[in-house]
């Protein structure tokens, strides 16, 4: 009986200490997540935070980097407020090949909107979308893509636009993988997002896609809240009359968030350079340079789509997101090139 | 001895339960704070979260609003991701009269920079700053203020600019109150920021001032991290060469965050309208309309500077932030006009 009592006391003590030890992890772990690395177990060091990653240089580089910058006694220690992690979306977190999800949405929107736009039957690029002659991003110039983007994303409130995007995502499927687009997200990347959050990082999506399009699913799919999505944007206009108010998307691009604009927007929005930047195309190069350049000791990574069996193999042959310079610069800039074929145990 | 053991067990149990109960509050309470509403005590309901506010309609309106929107069984319940609270800075969180702190910084910068700009001796508005003829914001047109803003805030990295601002803040004092500007912040407002955070709000500063100027002290003084500061901004340019990279502020304004731009920037940055908006001048009207318009059940508040003894009494006689329309619209829009004289027990 004496022993039982002592055990009870110890049990309560252990529970109490575990609760206290886990509080810092729990503080960040409260964000909703898709992949749950149980923070209680993880903070006792019992769980591999990246189980879908094969053992190898990429995985160990990530684990070492995070261990170093979160260790107060390490010279590379970084305060939590500067632990900004930035991820490209298309091709980095989810499939972008052979066509970017938002482009598929835009092309479907043109067809849905056509009855109200009889002039589109005689106006390019809309005419050839409606006739079925052009049906993928690669059929259009970047200027044409921007015209389609503006035409299908304006004269709406952000709520209306997000609602349209959600409805479309709910009823559409990736034709190759025969599942919703929001299930064509990479499992190893979901684990990485979750791991970084648990380690006190503020995880941002920094996308060339429309910020509101990504916001339509970022919280549910990635556990990333709206305010941590930095993307391209349509100009807004605030309108108030009587006792009502709203913002409406104007037919004008405010920012096209690609290349060096990604670096500039990260600084403008967060007030910091990233310490961890992950992309998959040449448009992500400045973001990676911003994380790793000069006396910054950040980490840069690029997904290399080299798995023709489980996903796709493509580099510089994808007009909307080629990876060419990035592969050549990776050595000099000490970026990790992640082979989706070899470094990932699972793709989805 | 038996009793002592049982007491010990109960004590551990109580400690454990208290730790568990407090975890949700601690999750938000981990942000650094100036005013510490002890979350452990507060989550047991023992502490007034707004002790520097006099009992009255303003205080009870705030407490009721927060109680309703955080109560899941209340029809006005708002999910945590939509609990966006936006605060103007100058005149709302800290003194702005008779001159805005950033304008004082800019005028001192002109003097510091003058040796490298001999042309300023013959160029307005710099000439009359250097001669001492003009020495306050009210002496300049808004266009002149913008020229001074650009001249004193460009050709620097954000880090360099923030460092200059911090050094200036550390060595400068408000001449009337004879204390650092960062101590001329309103105690009731610090309590309110802290209270809203504890209740799961994401608290943003939405300022007409430069975002980086406010970031120089927002974390330390308000407990508001850089990424929750939305402000005016100078255009950035990303530069990378060899293995180094940086962003530099160009001599061009990217956004002047006042009036309806405040509402637009809140939507662009957070992806949501605010549910709680607090300002003190007509430039904050759209932000308040955005929080309270239409079928939104948000709360809007305006600080009324009516305390000529403890601070200042001014309305529409302050060129850089007059409050005129706002007072007239408050009734129709159901905004709380907070009398700094009557509603606040302490100013600082």
Major pleated sheet of chain A:
7 strands, mixed
Q: Main sheet of chain A: which strands, in order across?
A: 4-3-2-1-5-6-7
Radius of gyration of chain A from CA coordinates: 23 Å
Number of strands of chain A: 7
Largest interface: A-B, 57 and 57 residues
Distance between the termini of chain A: 53 Å
Tell me about this structure:
2 copies of one chain form a homodimer. Mean pLDDT of chain A is 90; it is low at 1-7, 17-22 and 24-44. The first copy, chain A, is built from 13 helices and 7 strands. A 7-stranded mixed sheet of chain A has the order 4-3-2-1-5-6-7, sandwiched between helices. In chain A, helix 12 (285-292) links the parallel strand 5 and strand 6 (299-304). Chain A is of the alpha/beta class and 348 residues long. At the A-B interface, helix 1, helix 9, strand 3, strand 4 and helix 11 of A face helix 1, helix 9, strand 3, strand 4 and helix 11 of B.
Describe the secondary-structure layout.
The structure is a homodimer of 348-residue chains.
Chain A (H helix, E strand, L loop, with lengths): L1 H28 L9 H5 L13 H13 L14 E4 L13 H13 L12 H5 L11 H12 L4 H14 L15 H12 L3 E9 H5 L2 H5 L6 E13 L2 E12 L4 H11 L5 E4 L5 H8 L6 E6 L20 H9 L2 E4 L9
Short structural summary:
Two copies of one chain form a homodimer. Helix content of chain A is 40%, strand content 15%.
